[in-house]
Design brief:
8-stranded mixed β-sheet, alpha/beta, Rossmann fold, 240 residues
Length: 240
């Protein structure tokens, strides 16, 4: 497990300079399928590193690019959200650089998936047609034009919380679109979970923790563990 610098690749793709990333490598000799992990709105923190470590223990070479490399969350968040909605811009170049890095590694089998949580979930959906073998999107914002974004997409596993007021009805809309487009999928809504149900409570900044809980945000361990089981099973089916 180590931090790496992807600046040379990001320059080639027109992305962030510098571009930092976290890499989690399974035990053993490999090679392994690769995964690009896209972080939530709090950035590339210990929670995301922990998620990357979990996937590496499941047998994946994981690279998690820091989409806030050039200025931190306060300076980069708004522009990153705008780029996600627009479907183009620096964050997409950063994700492409991360994918190129893992594909170039002799430790990778050549099969690569993408996984995103919250902010990253939106990017996972938007890049599901960009050459990945599988995509996992957990409570990510849906593309404005679902059919345009998801035509030709790879298989998708997605998870949402029924108490998530920010994404009410998203699971049903996504599943209907994937059915319509013939994209293999596993979409599930957890009735008692809200937004950020895969993020441990202690990882949310204390000043906003209570407010977010009232608004329906917060960890739901049972839903989180089931979402991970479904994700790992889906990845085994499509990457291994």
């Amino acid at each position: 497990m180590a931090d790496v610098d992807l600046s040379q690749l990001s320059t080639r793709f027109g992305g962030s300079e510098p571009l930092k990333a976290y890499v989690a490598v399974p035990d053993g000799d490999g090679p392994w399928p690769g995964v690009v992990m896209v972080h939530e709105i709090f950035g590339l923190n210990d929670v995301i590193r922990g998620h990357a470590d979990r996937l590496s223990r499941a047998g994946y070479l994981v690279v998690a690019p820091d989409l806030f490399s050039i200025g931190g969350m306060r300076r980069c968040l708004r522009a990153t959200i705008k780029a996600m909605a627009a479907g183009e811009g620096r964050p997409y170049a950063d994700i492409a650089a991360a994918r190129a890095w893992v594909l170039a590694s002799p430790r990778c089998t050549g099969s690569v998936g993408v996984i995103g949580i919250c902010l990253g979930g939106g990017f996972a959906l938007m890049t599901a047609g960009d050459g990945f073998g599988v995509a996992a999107a957990h409570y990510g914002q849906l593309p404005r034009d679902l059919d345009a974004a998801l035509t030709g997409a790879c298989p998708i596993v997605a998870s949402f919380g029924g108490r998530d007021r920010t994404l009410r009805g998203a699971a049903a809309r996504l599943e209907a679109a994937l059915d319509r487009l013939g994209v293999e999928h596993d979409v599930k809504e957890y009735p008692h979970a809200g937004h950020a149900f895969m993020t441990p409570a202690e990882a949310i900044p204390r000043p906003v923790r209570a407010l977010l809980r009232v608004a329906g945000f917060g960890c739901e361990p049972g839903a989180a563990e089931d979402a991970w089981r479904r994700t790992e099973r889906f990845f085994r089916d499509h990457l291994s």
